[in-house]
């Protein structure tokens, strides 16, 4: 009788858990979503206790219990992108939204030196592995702010975006790896592929072209960096 009562109590505890309503930063195990380590692998901008007072109890890694509704629902108990954005900007670790912050907003390397699938949280902070993972598995460890990465996935499809006057600011922010903006200082971007030919035809010293045009298309070849 005691065994039956104990099992009944245990099952009621499981069934009373609210399933995860917002699947961001989760993985599926035994047919149900659970929070991954990427849900909490970042720092809150506010003090932990203050975040809890705003959004409720913090999520737990590997838990199938839903995050607090205060993290993603408004006063009418409706899912709200504005509330979710506020939570991810201020208390992402508490609400389990680390994976949608800028620290996780890039792709892993196409040919990593170690399979990103086997990277653990301990490897992310290990002095030996960290420099490698910054380059190869930034999306796993939340290192997208530390290295040189494309935030947009289509940058390499059309590299003209790197020097097109209307797209330069976008490229600086979203196509840093493709456009080599990580290796240049200030506003000095990459050279147009045809610069080698234009320079031979005196592009850099031709008064017909403005300094801004030279800086836009051939900053390094024209020594304007």
Automatic annotation (TrEMBL):
The superkingdom listed in its UniProt entry is Eukaryota
Q: Does the record bear Ligase in its keywords? A: no
UniProt keywords (A-Z) are: Signal
Name all ShKT domain ranges.
188-225
- Signal peptide from the UniProt entry: 1-16
Q: What is this protein called?
A: ShKT domain-containing protein
